[in-house]
């Protein structure tokens, strides 16, 4: 019996050694870099949609300093990025329309006046356009928000002014009637003030669900933007288009570069924040 046990133990040890050798060989196997795999595959081609709020010197996570914003726009320009409009992005997702090389969409939420005073001149300097999702009842009501004249000037110079609802009410905490009022009132005000039929909306706080998306569609919007660390591609849901937020941090510009450059790698490896 002791001899049998001894042989059994030797068999187990040998098996463990073989398993360890195989594991080491597998871990040591060199694979093609993920970045190259992403670059080779058309399935991973997408558009990064950046999401800003305020461009000023307020000490707040939503406030990117103008000097940092300038560095970011300069970097995009120097590296051959081209800004696109919501209509271009929508055509890309729904009809497979071609986009310029290195497309990027730059968006702002709420409609702060610093978007006009600080962001607009910087973007104009680099030949960029952006999209501002405005809380329509806030314009000309509060001094830190855009005026309708400023909104018209931005529209005349290639910017898109779109809906961020009428009062920024969280849709996941509102009734259907309240949601429809937010959607239709905002759309009607944009039509009255800018003479445009707004077709795009950014969900307040980025929150939504499938039912809310259906109400957005019923209200006459053809696409909605949320907040998600991912790129928009031809498989994206047009009522849940991904946007990557840019905040003021301890190292704002480093974080900006990581979000622009590493997004495809993050998607490939599943490192996506839901």
TrEMBL record:
One of its GO terms (biological process) is carbohydrate metabolic process. It comes from the Bacteria. GO terms for molecular function: hydrolase activity, acting on carbon-nitrogen (but not peptide) bonds. GO terms for cellular component: extracellular region. Its main location: secreted. It is found in: Secreted. Residues 102-274 form the NodB homology domain. Keywords: Membrane, Signal, Transmembrane, Transmembrane helix. The chain crosses the membrane at residues 7-28. The keyword Transmembrane applies. This is Polysaccharide deacetylase. It comes from Anaerovibrio lipolyticus.
């Amino acid at each position: 019996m002791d001899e049998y046990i001894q042989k059994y133990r030797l068999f187990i040890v040998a098996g463990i050694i073989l398993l360890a050798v195989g594991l080491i060989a597998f871990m040591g196997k060199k694979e093609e870099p993920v970045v190259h795999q992403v670059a080779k595959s058309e399935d991973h081609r997408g558009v990064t949609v950046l999401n800003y709020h305020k461009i000023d010197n307020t000490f707040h996570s939503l406030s990117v300093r103008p000097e940092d914003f300038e560095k970011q726009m300069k970097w995009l320009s120097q590296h051959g990025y081209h800004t696109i409009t919501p209509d271009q992005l929508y055509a890309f997702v729904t009809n497979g329309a071609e986009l310029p090389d290195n497309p990027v969409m730059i968006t702002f939420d709420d409609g702060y006046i610093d978007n006009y005073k600080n962001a607009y001149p910087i973007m104009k300097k680099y030949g960029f356009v952006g999209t501002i999702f405005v809380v329509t009842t806030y314009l000309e009501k509060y001094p830190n928000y855009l005026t309708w004249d400023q909104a018209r000037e931005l529209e005349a110079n290639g910017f898109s002014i779109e809906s961020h609802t009428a009062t920024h009410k969280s849709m996941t905490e509102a009734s259907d009637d309240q949601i429809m009022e937010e959607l239709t009132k905002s759309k009607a005000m944009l039509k009255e003030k800018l003479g445009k039929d707004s077709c795009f909306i950014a969900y307040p706080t980025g929150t939504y669900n499938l039912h809310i998306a259906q109400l957005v569609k019923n209200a006459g919007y053809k696409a909605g933007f949320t907040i998600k660390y991912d790129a928009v591609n031809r498989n994206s849901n047009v009522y849940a288009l991904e946007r990557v937020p840019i905040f003021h941090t301890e190292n704002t510009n480093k974080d900006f570069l990581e979000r622009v450059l590493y997004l495809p790698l993050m998607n490939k490896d599943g490192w996506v924040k839901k």
